[in-house]
## 1
Amino acid sequence: MKVLVLNCGSSSLKYRLFAMPEESVLTKGVIEKIGTEDAIHRYGTESEESSLTEPIYDHREALSRVVATLTSKQAGVISSAQEIGAVGHRVVHGGEVFSSSVVLTAEVKESIRAMSALAPLHNPANLLGIEAMEEVLPNVPQVAVFDTAFHQTMPQEHYLYPLPFVLYQRHKVRRYGFHGTSHRYCASRVPALVKHDLSGLKVISCHIGNGVSVTAIERGRSIDTSMGMTPLEGVMMGTRSGDLDPSLHQFVMEREGLSFDELASMLNKHSGLYGISGISGDVRTILEARAKGSIRATLAFAMYEYRIRKYIGAYAAAMNGVDVLLFTAGVGENSPLLRALICSNLTYLGLALDREANEQGTGERIISSPASAIKVCVIPTAEELMIARDAHALVIGLQRDEE
Ligand code: ADP
């Protein structure tokens, strides 16, 4: 079965076509600037990428282009759209309703819509993609895979904010956590790497990309995670502040004459590495500036590392120990410097890094020395593969039920 995985934003969409259960990627692509005359469609493999600029006015049109490209004579990888047996959508917020992936129905869509208040930038865009796909491939079952679902195992004392309880009862104000599909995938790779079942392991998973989150995973279940009701809470990120004193909001708004929307925009888009360095939220750019002696880039990177390390310490305390520390996503997979800095202050836990494995190895691997009390791993994340697996499994289940 071919499974099309979609990640729809408000003006962009990413896609990847998998052959399942072989788990091979047949092709992938991205369309940006949807809604404009000069939308850009890039597709193909890393070695052979094609690019096309043309007017694409909405998501339905964009998805029609995707299907046309997948089946085209020149660049196509399938002979007809009928080969697509399932579509898997990344959906950001599943609230308390979804603790696992589900086949999309009118009721599921209604729940996703209802959760838009919790993720106003993401859920409406995810829904746009779902509804457009229903029009483009009306007979293909679609599956929603939620970023929040993996964290639904958090106990109440970890997910509640110490606020009047009525806010939770009335409005579901609580911590949800994100990047769940990535943390779940990485945790699923741990047993093969460390030769130990997840049921006996305490794992701390660090997803360090543009967004950053740290998750405590005990016996394969998320018991705490650094992002909260929204992806703004937790560690410092590329452009997001992470944890702050809630009282500073009013102070800054009054002193700077900001509206609440302006403050929210500052915290999400102009803070973090970008806010401190004044240069960029992109770690590669920060590292380049730091290497050239930029004081603010050096400070930004030191704060970034420190705030991630603090969460690791907190989660070691939360679980009364840690057996595996794993790093994933753009920075986690590619910055030996950040990993080395974080690990250098965890020696009190018996952690010892293998310098060569950290600096020179590639791909999925252990980077701690054999004597280390904690196994440290690098695991390239594969959220799309996880979505393809869930979509495939659910649709196979549907077909069995129909038989
Ligand atoms: P997203 O969260 O958008 O999926 P990624 O997981 O791709 O993002 O991570 C993007 C981040 O990874 C950027 O800050 C980028 O600079 C960083 N990154 C990518 N390659 C490297 C590298 N070789 N060294 C350090 N950082 C890197």
## 2
Amino acid sequence: MARIVQKYGGTSVADVERIRTVAERVKKYHDAGDEVVVVVSARSGVTNELIGKARFLNPAPNDREMDMLLAVGEQETIALTAMALHALGIPAVSRTGGQAGIFTDPAHTRARIVRIESGNIETALTDGNVVIVAGFQGVNAEGQITTLGRGGSDLSAIAVASAVRAEICQIFTDVEGVYTADPRVVPEARKIPEISYDEMLELASLGSKVMQARAVEFAKKYGVVFEVRSSFNTNPGTIVKDEVASMEDVVVRGVAVDKNQVKVTVSNISDQPGTASRVFRALAEAEVVVDMIVQNVGRGGRANLTFTVPRDDAERARKAVEPVLDAVGGGEVNVVNDVAKLSVVGVGMRTHSGVASTLFSALADARINIQLISTSEIKISVVIDLAGADEAARAVHNAFGLGAEATVLSD
Ligand code: ASP
Ligand code: MG
């Protein structure tokens, strides 16, 4: 018997049939004697539909009213899930975020959870109920409904798991777990049985988009063990937990490709103290998140500054930088759209050498040119041509032996 939190995303509760399937799964755990807290998202598409309605009536809807509206999506699924469980003879109660004691800061539409008063959930569990909590929402100190930002149900689930000291938080979704690469691109990709929080953060935020990054960060901070698994079968998924020593035996855990970045070059600016600071201050003021950065010094005291930004921010980046061009000695802004960022990720990189050379030779053999390189302790990323990105992923996956059983080093 264990206390578990199960989170079901939008596709897992997309319609009444699927909600019934969720209830049947929850029943199995309840029948086995587990205490189950279920956290649900809105049915897939509902949040977008509500946002669409709001914008139809008002292009800049008020944030408080937006939260009032968006919280409705999850409220529909908690009630329907409770009813589906009742129909199977399982005692269940639904709770809005506020009723579940999820308190947030006042920031409507992007609130942060400040504390969870879980007494209410615990009592209901002790009385034998399945407790169904609305994801994505909470309540601020004034009792106003708040929402946690898109994809926020993951965070709700992890935070509730931490508050009720659940043994595990199971994230049921439409993929079977975290893979060594995107299986649609790399047919040999394998499901990773176990992974550290840091590796998950890199792999999820880079490509596979399995889970909201904030939720993974929260889990890491509070040591919440979670499992990403499919709600369409009973296969075990990927367990995400604190790093253990043996995780370093695998040098590269996975290959991620991000096709959602563009490359921006500010060329022919003066090579002087303060130019980079001017450019990046302008980008920061425009709230553009910059990822990889490279500066090359050219001839005659001129330099080029190259960086990547999310595709959707390309125009905002250009508009932010153009007004400061004069102040940095002229130059021009160029946006290159057809790029992709490929990364290899693994905590084993901390203790093993040769990762960069294996990566670069795999790309060279596949005749793929590297435009930018950046590294961190557990990741090496390159920017390459978009057209060659899938082929590059296959070549790199193969070069690190990720398709076979994991390469375990002997020393
Ligand atoms: N329903 C919200 C969204 O679509 C929260 C979630 O699904 O996690 O962003
Ligand atoms: Mg989601």
## 3
Amino acid sequence: MRIVLISTPIGFLGSGKGGGVELTLNSLVSGLLSLGHSVEVIAPKNSKLYESNEKAILHFVEGEDQVSWQHQNYNSPASIPDNSLLAGMLEKGLDIAKKADILLNMSYDWLPIWMTLNVDIPIAHLISMGSESSVIFNLISKVYTKYPHNFAFHSKIQANDYPFIKEPTIIGNGFKLDNYIFQDSIKGPLGWVGRVAPEKGLEDAVYVANELEEKLNVWGVIEDENYASKIERSYPRGTIDWMGFLSTDELQKQLGKCRVLLNTPKWNEAYGNVIVEALACGVPVIAYKRGGPSEIIQHGKTGYLADPDDKETMLSYVEIIEKIKRKKCREWVEKNASTEIFANKVVNWLNKVINEYK
Ligand code: UDP
């Protein structure tokens, strides 16, 4: 298959601003290439793919980023800035896709979904968030009546945000296992990884660390400075150890030393890449039973699930974390979330989309 991928219009690939989509795109490219498909990626200037993805053709577009939907009001109108990066990526993508089999859009925005109804090229959408916008929700609903297969989701619980979709396509996610080294460090520190923004609930993990009189190692882009400093001010100095935003290789080396990853989503997390990355290193995860994490973590086997916002229960699970066998964590990823498994699911889905256009 010849597949054209449209990246996120928020930050270049490698900046961290695009969140989990950056890694998802790279994993998908790896998996598709290993299955023998040809891949072209349309992405913002300065984007980088994994070195092992050198066979994919990367096309750069310059322009203004979109504003992320999770930081707008649910009922906000869709807005397109002057010199729009998203519009530029679509223009280029549609042009290249004339000679391809399908365009796969990975940006969560209104314009690419609207295009679906207005061009003859098959456009598939990998939806990376729960419902964060009424205009997008309504548009998906409209497109779905004409093209019921064109949307795929990372988890069932994410897809539940779009209840009009009868049998949603759920594709999970994929991770390049060679990129993560198993570590058996049962005495390591507490870890937290993510964009530092309110929907990620960092404050609850800091609470747990503080109760245990420990430090919390925090990796990720600080997206909301005010939010970050407010949390920092609420706890004794040094409770948070800011580790910065690292490349996957550096991140996994450091993350693998943790005895547990705390994951504290305050929104319907579509999937939660960082959970699987921790598991791949052998690090068990304690998360709230909210969104994707509740489908990934096997309670009592690869970590623990606490009721949403129940910090006390999260704390009690940290105290028994050594009961989790780190090898089981890695095994789950090998069996369920490799790039090959992921790419196969995507290819099956894309074939269904292409068939709708025949
Ligand atoms: N990440 C990273 N380096 C860091 C911290 C985070 O590359 O130092 C990446 C991580 O690999 C993951 C992404 O940031 O792919 C966060 O994705 P997730 O699905 O957990 O949440 P999202 O940001 O999409 O809501």
